[in-house]
Amino acid sequence: MSQISSISLKHINKLAIPALISGISEPILSLTDAAIIGNMSLNATESLAAVGIVSTFLSMLIWVLGQTRSAISSIVSQYLGAGNVGAVKNLPAQAIFLITALSVLIIAFTYPFASQIFKLYNASNVILDYSVDYYQIRVFGFPFTLFTIAVFGTFRGLQNTYQPMLIALAGTLANIVFDVILVYGITDIIPAMHIKGAAYASVIAQILMAILSAIYLLKKTDIPLLVKFPFNPEIKRFILMIINLFIRTIALNVALYFATSFATSYGPKYIAAYTIAINLWFLGAFLIDGYASAGNILSGKLLGAKDYKNLIDLSTKLIKYGIFVGLLMAAVGGLLYFPIGQIFSNDSEVLNAFYDVFWIVLLMQPLCALAFIFDGVFKGLGRMKYLRNLLLFSTLLVFIPVIVYTDSLDLKLHGIFIAFTLWILARGLPLIIKFRKTFSPLAQNS
C-alpha cells in the first residue's frame, strides 16, 4: 500500500479552484445568452423562454454523453495512484473517438425533429419557432463540447485542473464577445441576428475550446489523440461506467423535463422566470463542481493507492468546505437578490415571478453542495452503479410525485423548486451515509 501525504486545504483548493472556474463555462454560455436575449427590444420574453427550453434539452444531451469526463478521470486517477498510468495512455483517445462519433449520430437524429422535440416541452407558436431556430444552430457545437469534456476528464485524472481552466476562460470570453456582436449587431457592418446570433456565438466558443483542448493535451501531457487499436482492456469498465451514468443522467433529465414542461404550461412569464432561476441554480451547481471535481480526482487516486485513512479525511474536509461554499453562495445571492434578476430581464411580470422563488434556490445551495461533492467522490471511486440506483429512486419516487402533487395545489414555480429541494436531499444524504459505512472500517484496519 502506498501512502499519500495528508490532503490539505491548500492541496484541495489547488485542484478545486481551477476546476470551479472551468466548470462554470457551460452554464455561463447559457446565462450569457439569457442575459443578452432577455434585454433585447424585440420579443425578449419569448426568446428568453426559448433559450430556457433549448438549454434544458442541450444540458440533457451534454450531461448524458459528457459523463466520459467522470469515467476517464476515475480510471486515469486510479491508475495514477497505483503508479501505473502508462497502462491506460491510449484509453482517452479511444473514449473521445466513441463519444464524438455518437454525438454526430445524435445531431442527425434530432436536427430534423427539433419542432416535435420542443412540442414535448409544451412550446408553441413564437416560442416553438425560436426554440427550433436556436437549437438547429447550437447543436452543431455539441461534438466540440463533448471532445472538450473528455479532454478535461483526462487532465483531471492526471491531477491537473489548471489547463482546463485556461481553456474554459478563453471559451467564455469568446462567447460573451460574440454574443454582444451577433445578437445586437454592429451598425452598417454586422446585422442584428437576435436569438440566432446567440446560438452562433455559443458554437464559435465551443469550437475554440475544442481546438485549445487538443493543443494543450498534446503539449502538456504524453497522452496521444491518435486512436490506436486494439481497445485498451479498461474500455469495458469505461463503457460500463458510461452506461450506468447514462441511465443516471436520463433520470436526472427526466426531473428537468418535468420541471420545464410544467413551467412552460404555466405561461410565458413563468417559463422565462424559471429559465433565469434554473440557470442560476445550474451556475451554483457548477461553482461547487470545483470541490466535486477535487473529490473526484483525489478519491480516485487515494483508492488506487489504497490510502483509506486519507480518503476518510478528504470526505470530512469536503463536507466542511461544501457547507461553507453553499452558505457563501446563498449569502451573495441574498445580498444581490434584486440586481441579479434585473441582469436577465426588464419585464416586471417575469421579474416578480422570479423573485417569488429565487429564495428557494438560495436556500438549496448548502444541500446542493453536499450532494454534488459526494457525487464527485463516488464517480472518482468508480461507484457508478450506486449513483445510478440512487438517482432513479430520488427522481421516480421523490421528485415526480412531489411536483405532480404541488401542481395539483397550483403552487406553480414554488412547487417546482420545492420538488427540487426534496430531490437534492434524497440524492445527497444516502451518499454520505454509504461512504462512511464502506470506508470507515477500511481506514481503521489499514
Automatic annotation (TrEMBL):
GO terms for biological process: monoatomic ion transport. It is a multi-pass membrane protein. GO terms for molecular function: antiporter activity; xenobiotic transmembrane transporter activity. Keywords: Antiport, Cell membrane, Ion transport, Membrane, Transmembrane, Transmembrane helix, Transport. InterPro entries: DinF-like (IPR044644), MATE_fam (IPR002528), MATE_MdtK (IPR050222), MdtK-like (IPR048279). The chain crosses the membrane at residues 48-66, 95-114, 134-153, 165-186, 198-218, 238-259, 271-298, 318-338, 358-378, 390-407, 413-433. It is found in: Cell membrane. GO terms for cellular component: plasma membrane. The keyword Secreted does not apply. The keyword Ion transport applies. It comes from the Bacteria. Belongs to the multi antimicrobial extrusion (MATE) (TC 2.A.66.1) family. This is Multidrug-efflux transporter.
